[in-house]
Structures
1.
Amino acid sequence: MSETAKFNLYLPGLNNLQNENLNLVSADIRADKTTFNYYYIKGGVLELQKENTYNTFDFSSFSEMLSHFLNENKLEKPSKLSLGVPGPVINGKCLAERLPWALIGEEIKNESGVEAVYLINDMEATAYFMGNLTSHCLLPIYEHGGISDGNVAILSPGNGLGEAGMFWDGKYLRPFATEGGHSEFSPRTDVEVEFYQYLKAIYGIVSWESVLSKEGLFNIYRFLRDVKRHKEPEWLTAKIQQGEDFTEVICASAMEEKEMICKLTMETFIDFLAREANSLVLKLKATGGLIIGGDIPLSIKNYIDKEKFYKKFIISDKMESLLKDVNIYILLNDKTIAAGAAYYGAFHSN
């Protein structure tokens, strides 16, 4: 672990000489793209040797994509393989809905010939990234003194809504995955009830992922457009029809204050983000801090009104005293999954 790391993770294999001078491949596997990292482990440090990204659907299996990565770059077979996957890992298997094929640890081990194969949920991998996280990787939204002891919550809206935690055992933080993004969304105001009913007609069950994700951002926008009758400008209609990245278009327009519907979309999204952050911190009793990661917060970090977000975050029936001193940070790194999976594979055990 870096001497300047802000979070002290439980990594019992960090000083084990058997984990020295080995090659390791980690991967961040997503529906649209998969990123591979090839590392050399030396002195408890992961030295990045090669990185490549491929279109996930171009390959008939993960093992085929791994073989392509190694052969294309003339890399020797690694000693370890650690995969950050977009779904729950149960008994060494991940059957993620967004992926074109299943990920089964034993099959990958047999097909690749790699002796040590690890599957880890992508949000748990993000938590393991905290083992080498330094101050410059974090943008404070609210900071009350230094890093506090206690559990830590991680909330990451992007293609989906990722949620994870780190349990404080009295000495170390121990990462764990959750599927909290799929818990049901609940409205608070009359307008939110309308929004819920609008989404219920589309999805049946309305999860927080239907609100806090790239799809969720579009759901907020089209509710404001179709139900609340906010005007959609012609230039925005054209960009949507042309298939431009909706999140980038809305974020840019909101920050430039070009269109009211874009500002309302963004402000509503940020309000919901504060709400779910509040809920996750309370459920995990995360007095050690809240980390907000994912593609969307990284894109809108300069738009967020920190004071307003904090005031929304601490609203509670009886727990404002717990919430008001929780440190809140935005994670300024978009490569946490592959790097965190590598830390897990290299050092999580002896």
2.
Amino acid sequence: MLATDIPEQQLLADPAQLTAAGAGWTAREICQQPRLWQQLAEQHRGFAAQLTAWLSPLLAQPQLRIIFTGAGTSAYIGEALAAYIQQQLPLAGQRAEAVSTTDIVSHPQLYLGSELPTLLVSYGRSGNSPESVAAVQLADQLLPNCRHLLISCNAEGQLAQYARQHPASSLLYLMPDAAHDQSFAMTSSFSCMYLATLLTFAPDQHALSGSIALAQQILHSRLDQIRAQALQPCQRMVFLGAGPLKAIAQEAALKYLELTAGKVLSSFETPLGFRHGPKSLVNAGTQILLLQSADKYSRQYDLDLLRELQQDKQALAIDLLSQDQFATDAALADVWLGLPFVLWCQTLAFYKALQLGVSPDNPCPGGQVNRVVQGVTLYPLTE
């Protein structure tokens, strides 16, 4: 299917509301994602030879350690994909893991104390977050054999500049220009950097086509359903998902919290983990969205919890998001379902913000939270 933009005005019955509500950028950046994913895949084909030539010597090292890193939303990309990519690595002694830049910067010697050859995969929408730059510098300081794959949406950001200044040890993978979101919260930047990682380490054109088709179905025919979910008068919002979908649930919870300016508390867990304490938060003001795994074995646990929550009759609303609800011939693995599922959750947060009278483009006009993190003091590491 050829992906085309769904006009952002489709998110609202009255297009004039987009400007009045301070929602135009966020609406556009949510709606453009299916087209951007296709554009990125085409761009990747032209970049693949250079990327393969650069990566091949690294992937030939039997003890290679790959660290996926970023802050906030960017960190969740690695958390969603690391275990899956671990399975795709060619040699048994290689490993892939996710460590946020915020953890690396605060405890560098805990995470960067290895003598193993290391590939640090850094994500950054702007590439200017203080921790992103510091994590690269700390890796160079502490790791004797480190290379950098810098995945960013900003050609002029500090991560991109680092790549140009260190061509022997680094490679820049730049996203399409439109992925450099102008709104406060990351939407298309998250999904494009997520997709770039899959295209690099686990490409699957059939799965990508299926993800694009599901996303287009959501934007063409499921907006009323999402809007109805957003109109629920919830005081607490819970996103549940397991495996790769745990990090998608985590990103969904953050997006919901960000776009509603914290007016509705949101949280995430796995379906199995939810019973171990977090289920205590369920009351008559709690709304729950369960992201169902595509894996036949894993979804048994999803459905067990769904039935339990329905039988408890405590929650305000319980919704299931499942591949089965869409018309598709593609049987997508959870890592590929993450793309349309996160779009659904972004749209839900968008509508909830509008219901609460919050501008999705600028939900924190007071500047307590910023589009690019500010106020971080970086301290030199004396070994």
3.
Amino acid sequence: MRAAVVTSFGGPEAVEIADVERPEPAAGQIRIKVAAAALNPVDAGVRAGAFGGAGQQLGLGWDVAGTVDAADAATGRHPGDQVVALLHGIAKPLGTHADYVVVDASATAPAPTSVDLPHAATLPLNTLTAAQALDQLALKEGQSLLVTGAAGAVGGYAIQLAAHQGIQVTAYAGEADEALTRTLGATGFVPRGQTPPTPFDAVLDAAVLGTEALAWVRDGGAYIGVIPGTAPAPERGVRTAAVEVAADGKRLAELVRLTDEGVLTPRIAETYPLTDAPKAHARLAEGGVRGRLVLIP
């Protein structure tokens, strides 16, 4: 089968389409025939060597939507089931950018019925990151939240989830994205480069602004980033943390349900054949992507 991998670090040209053996599921696992897999910034980081792993073959891809091809009978999944899943891990020999992938059954959820599989492939990593970040913030209905990088995938899902919980959301993004973020549920908007006029109960920093965004949190509030190990030091009684996303099939199933109910809106910027993975990486590197780039085997 084919898989997108890197064997040496670099730019988009470092992505190779390799012929590899089709993986076999072990106890508690299922094999998925990949229908679509999203490309995320973490994949660019792996490709560039940001997380180490020199001298190894590293597989790319965390998100997957597809059809169960083989399964341990005890998993409750069956061949033909359409599923979505998060394949967690930085240094893995194979990722979801492949014809087939093996994942723990506990990381899977039934695919949504309201959108096609390419759109479904944008859900796992980004919705789980947004949901788990909001869990750590522990805001109550009526409290205020600023989301930086609000027009991106994590930021957009965070707006929708927070608004659904009754949180008052202000978006921080480029001026051209105001209409989009308000459509997603933001009731306030701050153009990128401007300072918010008032502090917020919390900031979800999807743009990774760090100390700049921390300054926009009220005394005793909360800040959460989206890259582990990058949260600024606490100050003024502000709690600071960075979410480290975890695979969670039960939570993913809840997020799929919210998608089918229209609370969450999967967004695709563009699709590429798996063989054009280097081109997709090049487009991601250009910036300004709204929604996710999705690879189709």
